[in-house]
Design brief:
Helix content of chain A: 25-40%
Largest interface: A-B, 114 and 114 residues
Oligomer: homodimer
Number of strands of chain A: 20
Structural class of chain A: alpha/beta
Strand order of the largest sheet of chain A: 7-15-14-13-12-8-9
Shape of chain A: globular
Number of helices of chain A: 13
Largest sheet of chain A: 7 strands, mixed
Chain lengths: 473, 473
């Protein structure tokens, strides 16, 4: 019902719902103040008068006035009436809107995300139910800032077994993905007076942003066929490495290089941050153990569930050198962020039950098949393109013949509805590798993989045919 | 089976399991290097010889050597043998241990945690299942740093309806509890050149630590019967307030004070950070709306699921003024932490289905009953103690008669197996309130509440009887 507030001297329309009259009156008055229809200092009608005018109980009006006085919208003095409190009117906001989601390309072979369709929804829910059933109430309170003990115990055991990490549960710190872990370490390095962190010259731009956001400079480590080169490390407080499978070039850090970095760390007091982002996925042999075990006091090992389960879980873990542990935990408390205990308990259960290993084995097989299909497709459509970095992981680097235009190929693929990325986007500083595409073959849903490969093949074939070829149909 | 490595010239015992021989050999060799039993530079026997000695296939030995070379433990040159790589031996670590859990007191009436037994496990799991069933795969990828759109939409609508917050979904930023939200704002304030933040003189020490960890000074706002006093705000970049129910004193911020803080903020460019930690729980009347709506461009509203569901969820939300939004999102990306998309989707579903409101209503009723029982127990056992701050929230302040010893009472309760806290622990600077206990009546499990109250009553009665009374039995 639409009512007019006739006796107030103000042109004020109040829409009151038929039920919940008092709440409706409050909302209408708030809106009127917000809109500027009721000006600061305006006197409101006596509750008795407004009640009669609106045909509602006087009590409802008096209670609404009281509520709005308590909230600061109105002021009242006993016996002398009710006014609109001082308030800066501002334009009425648009009603609650769903923000636009970022566009999802039709086919997507960009690296960094696994096949999200392979997330074991049923196994996760079953583990969540079992974990919640078994959890005593107190585990649902504020968690230990290092993470829940059952999860840290399960992780220490898993990491020792599957990745050769040398760690005990008390040195595991659960975090919310690699970027969070890196931010915590940067926080500690900055507090210790560090000024720079070395990162591989080809790598994640987001990680460089995290480093810089903590006031640290980024140094660039060259990457060659043996992985990162331990050069220009002089003033670095830490070196961030991807030893198992360089991201994105895909090489494994050579044994000699591993030792060189460890020697640098032990000699200089520097820290190696080992980003083991896809260490579980190795196809030609058993996974290469983490380099952390070579010097657990000088290496922070970092792993996540972002590739093995789902990036959106935002669940990761650090194996922290004992001398650094307190500082990392303090930094974590200061930053205030923690993973949900429900997810922590679920993950612990999945690890302890073997469900996590099962998921890894299934995924490894599926990704290996995709890798082989990718290599075959490239060979068929563009034999001049070399497929590298495929011994492990969820992505490959397609090295284009000299003279081919990386950006043009990316654009050509986009015109076919396929998102791919050139190697250039991962680079900082001058190019030391020729034109290439970074292909995340793990990403598409299973049903879309064939079509995505076909589009990639077509784009490569067109690029190979040379710039004289027409635009994509 | 226990095997002796007889022909190596080293006193080396390798425990090899009967199955998975190669992996066992690798682990044994890693251990031997780690322990220092195999010294850097020591030459390993040829694979053929070791295989014969151990009675295993030569291939297994060769593969194990290859693996350890790749991991950096050994070095090899074709045709000239295998050596232990340079390595600093370090003491063998203890096997994986479960860290000790912090002691859980038998009865606990400390504030800050709700009844974790009331967490709606079944409803949460059902919502999680429904949310996962409905979620398209891409929602399981890296989330929008502001939080998932479905959750932000549901929160904007809930906050407008239940808390009178003036916000649209695009200005909601999902975070991991209040401390995380506060850390993000402090990050922004520091980057803008802010030097100090005003916090209520009685409040959470953890929040003060978060402020200081971001290089900002803490100013103390006095708290009287009308809530925080807008004094000594001069250089503050922000004021952190608990308007609905001051923590821990329990008063509601008076209307005049609300306007004073808003005036300060608009005049000085300062920010009000509204910590609405238990705004849903008001017993004598409908909840008092958030002060954010008075000036949405000058107030950051912060809410969490820590009191309404479970602290361990680590799920919170900010309604951010438009001019601050980009900086907050940038700070969040740099800090790398995000809430799990599974929890975000579940929470969105719980909000949209009405399940969250249902939980709030149940909890409000239950807490109100507890509050009444607490007040009655205190009146019965210690009529000289005044129960205050109980119009809302999950805790009360028991003001002790002048001369009573707060710390002694806390110790007396502890001797009875009951954890309680004195007001002093929440204070910074000189005392402006007399001795008091802060009692979190929401915390104990339902079945333990009666016993906890009885212990509290006994401790209060003993304290009232004076220091002459003997120690607790």
């Amino acid at each position: 019902m639409k009512k007019t507030w006739a006796n107030s001297g103000l042109d004020l329309h109040l829409d009151l719902p038929a039920s919940r009259v008092r709440a409706g009156l409050e909302a209408a008055l708030r809106d009127a103040v917000r809109d500027g229809r009721l000006h600061p200092g305006a006197r409101l009608p006596p509750s008795r008068a407004l009640a009669a005018d609106l045909g509602i109980a006087r009590n409802s009006v008096a209670e609404a006035y009281g509520q709005l006085v308590a909230e600061g919208w109105l002021t009242a003095r006993t016996g002398s009436g009710t006014w609109v409190a001082p308030y800066r009117p501002r334009p009425r906001q648009a009603p609650v809107l769903a923000p636009a989601e970022s566009a999802v390309p039709r086919y997507d072979l960009r690296a960094g995300v696994p096949d999200l369709g392979a997330f074991p929804r049923r196994a996760w829910l079953a583990a969540a139910r079992a974990a919640l059933d078994a959890a005593p109430d107190h585990l649902l309170g504020y968690p230990d800032p290092r993470g829940l003990p059952p999860l840290r115990t399960a992780l220490a055991s898993y990491l020792a077994r599957a990745r050769g990490v040398s760690v005990t549960a008390d040195r595991i710190v659960v975090c919310s993905g690699f970027a969070h872990g890196l931010a915590l370490i940067c926080q500690v390095l900055g507090a210790r007076g560090g000024t720079a962190v070395a990162l591989e010259q080809y790598g994640s731009q987001a990680h460089r942003r995290v480093v810089r956001a903590h006031g640290l400079r980024c140094l660039a480590l060259p990457v060659d066929g043996d992985g990162a080169v331990p050069r220009a490390l002089g003033r670095a407080a830490a070196a961030v490495l991807t030893p198992a499978h360089q991201f994105p070039l895909g090489v494994t850090l050579a044994p000699r290089r591993r030792r060189d970095f460890i020697e640098w760390a032990t000699a200089s007091g520097g820290l190696v941050i080992e980003d083991d982002y896809d260490g579980e996925f190795r196809y030609d042999r058993q996974p290469i153990g983490a380099m952390q075990a070579l010097a657990p006091d000088h290496v922070v090992y970092a792993g996540t569930a972002s590739k093995s389960l789902a990036s959106g879980l935002r669940l990761g873990w650090l194996a922290v050198p004992a001398p650094l542990l307190d500082e990392v935990v303090t930094a974590k408390e200061a930053a205030g962020a923690q993973a949900s205990v429900l997810d922590q308990l679920t993950m612990a259960r999945l690890l302890a039950s073997g469900g996590y290993d099962r998921q890894i084995r299934h995924a490894r097989l599926a990704y290996r098949r995709r890798r082989d299909r990718l290599a075959a497709a490239v060979l068929r459509h563009a034999p001049g393109v070399e497929v590298t970095g495929i011994a492990a992981g969820l992505h490959a680097v397609l090295r284009l013949p000299a003279g081919q235009n990386e950006a043009g190929l990316v654009a050509g693929a986009a015109a076919r509805g396929l998102a791919v990325e050139g190697l250039a986007g991962y680079r900082t500083g001058g190019a030391s590798h020729g034109p290439a595409l970074v292909i995340g073959y793990g990403r598409p849903a299973g049903h879309a993989f064939t079509a995505a490969l076909a589009r990639l093949g077509a784009a490569l074939a067109q690029a190979a045919a040379g710039p004289a070829a027409g635009p994509p149909r």
